[in-house]
């Protein structure tokens, strides 16, 4: 095998190891918030970020009165 092939195989193994380490143990929780008015995307994002420290919010399904927050369970 040439040096280039060995280096390429090493880099692939290294990257796969790093990706596996980053995704290991990440669990996501969900919070469904139902409002009296139709969901507004901007408000949903702000409320989720504030309530769940960096959570991601989206109105689901469109149009609806429901805001879905996704956040890390480990925080």
UniProtKB/TrEMBL annotation:
Q: Which residue spans traverse the membrane? A: none
Q: What domain of life does the UniProt record list for this protein's source? A: Eukaryota
Per the UniProt entry, the signal peptide is 1-25
InterPro entries annotated for this entry?
DEFL (IPR010851)
Biological process terms in GO annotation:
defense response to fungus; killing of cells of another organism
Respond yes or no to whether keyword Lyase is given for this record.
Answer: no
Check the record and name the Pfam families matching this protein: SLR1-BP (PF07333)
Localization annotation: Secreted
Chief place of localization: secreted
Name the GO cellular-component terms. Answer: extracellular region
Note whether Signal occurs among the keywords. yes
The entry's keywords: Antimicrobial, Capsid protein, Disulfide bond, Fungicide, Plant defense, Secreted, Signal, Virion
Family per record: Belongs to the DEFL family.
The entry's protein name is S locus-related glycoprotein 1 binding pollen coat protein
Lineage of the organism: Eukaryota, Viridiplantae, Streptophyta, Embryophyta, Tracheophyta
């Amino acid at each position: 095998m040439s040096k280039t092939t060995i280096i390429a195989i090493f880099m692939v193994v290294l990257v796969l190891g790093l990706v596996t380490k980053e995704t290991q143990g990440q669990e996501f929780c969900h919070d469904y918030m139902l409002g009296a008015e139709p969901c507004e995307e901007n408000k949903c994002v702000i409320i989720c970020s504030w309530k769940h420290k960096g959570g991601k919010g989206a109105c689901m399904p469109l149009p609806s009165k429901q805001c879905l927050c996704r956040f890390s369970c480990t925080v």
